[in-house]
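Crash report, auto-generated. Payload:
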Amino acid sequence: MNTSERIELYLSGNMNQAQLDEMKELINADNNLASEIDLQKSIIESIKLNRKLALKASLNSIPSSAILEFAAQTVRATYLKIAAMVVGSVFTLGVVTYFVNKKVSEPAQTTTNLNELETKSIEPTKDASIIENKIIETVGTNPKLEIDSKKITINSKTVKIENKLKSKKLATKAKSAETNRSFLDNKFESESETVVKSDLKENKEFIASGQSSKTAEIDITSIKDDKHKFHYSKKENLLSLYGDFDDSPYEILELNDSSGQVMYLYYKNTYYSLRDTKNGGIEKLKKIYDEKTIQDLVKARKH
Amino acid sequence: MTLFLKDSEVIEKMKKGDESALEYLYKKNYKMMINLIIKNNGTEEEAKDIYQDALIVFWQKITSGNLEMTSKISTYLYSVCQNLWRKELERKSRFTSDTVEKGFSDGSAEKEEKVKIIQECLGQLGESCRKILSYYYFDELSMNDIAEKMGFANADTAKTKKYKCKLELDRLVKSKFSSADFLD
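Recovered output after restart:
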């Protein structure tokens, strides 16, 4: 460390005690060193003073207008902050109120819907005439609507499924009773009979998805014929069974699938297809092997 | 500068020697500090002077890393202003009685003359040298910060520059005084 570095360290006050003691001894012994330290001290003080004056000059150069403008901006910002807080509080309060009200009203509405639903649902065990009455009741607001009860051939199973479907939809969406009403109204609006037919067709399609079946309405003739011992002929609703069917009871079933209504014969624990024969001619009864169809037929027989 | 800064942001800027932070503080607390002095029998000019001194004390302590803030800046400045003003009032009171009793004979005039001559030498230095020496001795910035502020390549460059500037100032001052002039 040279002399100037040592002087600088001494003046900065960063010497340890040993260095300080040594320095004091040197200063006492050397007048030139003492005067050099005095000079350096004055120089450093002057540098500091110079800097302080420069900073003060910089602060003094700030115009009063800038200070006033800053104060005005502070006031404006304070007002804005207060306004923002008020708006924020009101908004928060509004949101909270909205959700609180929604929560309070929602359960009551759902209960109403469920009650309404229960009132409107149809007992699945009731017959078609009850369904008809229900439909008439439902569409009672539309005076144009006339329903031919003969057209309604849906069995209880269909109604049950339809009701389940509606119940599920309504329960899930928790719509109001009015919505339920409009749901039914819409369903039966416009051309009444057509709509009813269409609706029934939709139900049939729904059933045809393998969910259900209905009992067939058909004219059946049983014919004993030596040539045709286990045959049939079918054209539209006229069915002729060839063979001896007297020793065991048989059942005619109708099932809906994607191609439409298909009839089946149940005889001695076996199912046979009764699709229309070509030109109404005689054909051999063909056994059903498709498990899915058999399952559907079993279900149909149970109901 | 952004209109409103947090205290921590102001201090961060100051630590890097950003003087805009000092100006920001000056404007922000001006009214409060000036009112403090004026309410305690000061004039507006005195109030400005005290407030500026307080700010510079704060600046120096922050830049040199000798202050860890535990309160708000405004609170700190307020107490510095109070102390400085109290000292100024004491000095004024002492000055009045001293001049009446003893007159001017404390050697301060000689010291002032010495400082004045060194100030002239500083004026002869280039702007760059004045800044480097100020940043080093007053702001106590690190060589890294000085290099950054002055646009030097690195701290070593700043160190060399500072050494040369100080050498030049010493030469200028010594050329105006003989060593004997500085002996008490």
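Post-recovery validation: Helices of chain B lie at 7-15, 19-39, 44-63, 73-101, 108-124, 127-137, 143-150, 155-176.
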